[in-house]
Specification:
The chain has 151 residues and is an all-alpha fold. The protein has helices spanning 12-21, 23-40, 47-71, 76-103, 108-130.
């Protein structure tokens, strides 16, 4: 079942180094770190701050995880599904900055830093998605979302 001979050339450390060298993954990690630092400035005794910080941390952690997932596969549909999830969480994080500014829960300068990093991420994201090879899909996803299929 778990025969190591199936993938004799697979080196997890090499894959980790490759992922960590990827500019979009690096930017996602920067966003995650910055989000963590921003959350640390919020009032831990305020219920609204607690909710907002929890949602922000979730969004910021999902982004690099989904990049890793997309980078681990050659299938176009799986890459695109991960890309959609990344976009949703990046936009959620961006939207949350507006809420935090309105609610005056975080210093506007910190929020602008995060917004700037998300914009830099968006530009990298567009290039990254454009690099996906659409001919790597062996069959459709049954929904016809990214490629036509018979399902």
């Amino acid at each position: 079942m778990w025969d190591d001979d199936d993938e004799p050339d697979f080196d997890p450390e090499e894959e980790r180094r490759r992922l960590e060298a990827n500019p979009i993954f690096q930017k996602a990690e920067e966003i995650r770190d910055l989000t963590q630092r921003i959350v640390e400035t919020m009032d831990k005794n305020d219920p609204e701050s607690e909710i907002q910080s929890s949602l922000m941390l979730e969004d910021s952690m999902i982004i690099p995880a989904k990049i890793a997932g997309a980078e681990a596969v050659d299938d176009y549909i799986l890459k695109m599904e991960n890309a959609v999830i990344i976009k949703i969480h990046a936009r959620s994080l961006l939207t949350r900055t507006a809420s935090l500014k309105y609610l005056e829960l975080v210093a506007p300068a910190y929020l602008q830093l995060l917004r700037d990093e998300i914009e830099a991420f968006r530009l990298l994201f567009r290039k990254w998605v454009a690099s996906f090879e659409s001919n790597t899909t062996k069959e459709g996803d049954g929904w016809g979302l990214f490629v036509e299929d018979d399902g």
